Amino acid sequence: MQYINNNIHTKYYLPTKRSDNKLIYVVEDDLLQADLLKDFLIGIGYQVSHLKSIRELTYQMKQIVPDALLLDVCLPEGYTAGLNYLEGLQDKVPTFIITNHDTQETCTRAALSHAKYIFGKPIDFEKLQKNLERIL
What we know:
Elements: E1 2-5, E2 8-11, E3 23-27, H1 31-43, E4 47-51, H2 54-63, E5 68-72, H3 81-89, E6 95-99, H4 104-112, E7 117-120, H5 125-135
Parallel strand pairs: 3-4, 3-5, 5-6, 6-7
Antiparallel strand pairs: 1-2
């Protein structure tokens, strides 16, 4: 299987379909980025729900708590809305930060808030897969 991301062709070897059906919330307001993440995660056997804002995430977390979050930093609620949410989450759900703004401040705040990994955009899908398999 081959994925295309920003005109870079990278080959990913997919594991056997997962039988445990782990659920991942992708919280991303960029629809193209969200679609790439969803397609990749579904392809490697995860259930995926796409949410576009902290408001949607807050509502959905009251319904079903996922096995992991992929959380963008900059969302409609503000430039650091994802980090603000993560700080209040208190390590209850394994969270992976995705951001265009992987500055020292962003990385420090994410690490102090127990983010499992910080991915700059474009996302390295191979690293994402390895980190998810390690954590989940």
